[in-house]
Amino acid sequence: MLGFVLDAARRYRRIWLLRRLPYPAMVPPPLPEVQETVAQSFDYQDALDLNEARIKNLDYMQLPLADKSVVDVGAGVGHLAQALVQRGCMVTCAEGRQENVDEIRRRLPGVRAAVFDVERGDLSQLGKFDVVFCYGLIYHVENPLFALRNLASAASNLLLIESMVCDSYHPVMHIEEEPLTPNQALRGFGCRPSPSFLTFALKRLGFHVYGPKVLPDHPCYHFQWRDSLRTREQGRGLRAVLVAAREPLHLPTLVRLDA
């Protein structure tokens, strides 16, 4: 009860302060420094459960992935890349941190892995791929439009995106500060784009945009849309999955988002 009262007092004080300013501007306090190993960042149970739900949902969508060339951008330590290899994909991993690439090479010695910064490099220089797979990266970039253009430049057929999002019906983005740990933003700033933001951008980049009719079986994907701009519910980040295709897809597992 005391915690609730203190939170309410802080909230009302913040509103009072904002009303006294010429513009409602506020800088949040800096994040505490966090020290994590690569394994601590990627191998904890919640992350493993999320990856299991992602892969089961990918199987549900019945996308034509077998025998396709796939680049996993923001591959972490290769959990999802390994699942893609097991499903018959020819996988290249692109990851922003050298220590993560080293771990991918240790865990998946047969998979090509390269250090790549999606906000500064040119993904097409790694090649053209049937599928650009980008699960869990977009919300770790500070310039999602540049990142999406970069991803699109290397996608000859499909661009698959999973991201944390903000709850808005409009094409907006919520900026976030992130700790400098192995699984977060490279330069400390991330974002939480709305699904409309992602759909709008992908449509203008030449894709047909879809979502799975059945969402991944994980609490992060199941919430009520309220147009509230929130990014979390019950301590969990809100998440969404989008499928962008160069040509229309006629799959009963997908629903069109850009019509």
Keywords:
alpha/beta, two-stranded antiparallel ribbon, 7 helices, 259 residues, globular, eight-stranded mixed beta sheet, 24% strand
Number of beta strands: 12
Oligomer: single chain
- What is the spatial order of strands in the main beta sheet? 3-2-1-4-5-11-8-12
Radius of gyration: 19 Å
Short description:
This protein is α/β, with parallel strands linked by helices and 259 residues long. Helices cover 30% and strands 24% of the residues. An 8-stranded mixed sheet has the order 3-2-1-4-5-11-8-12. It has a two-stranded antiparallel ribbon with strand order 6-7.
Question: Explain this structure to me?
Answer:
The protein has 259 residues and is α/β, with parallel strands linked by helices. The protein is built from seven helices and twelve strands. It has an eight-stranded mixed sheet. Strands 6-7 form a two-stranded antiparallel sheet. The protein has a two-stranded antiparallel ribbon with strand order 9-10. Helix 4 links the parallel strand 1 and strand 2 (90-95).
Fold topology:
Elements: H1 2-19, H2 38-42, H3 45-61, E1 69-73, H4 79-86, E2 90-95, H5 98-107, E3 112-115, E4 129-135, H6 144-153, E5 155-164, E6 173-177, E7 189-193, H7 195-204, E8 208-212, E9 232-233, E10 236-237, E11 239-245, E12 254-256
Parallel strand pairs: 1-2, 1-4, 2-3, 4-5
Antiparallel strand pairs: 5-11, 6-7, 8-11, 8-12, 9-10
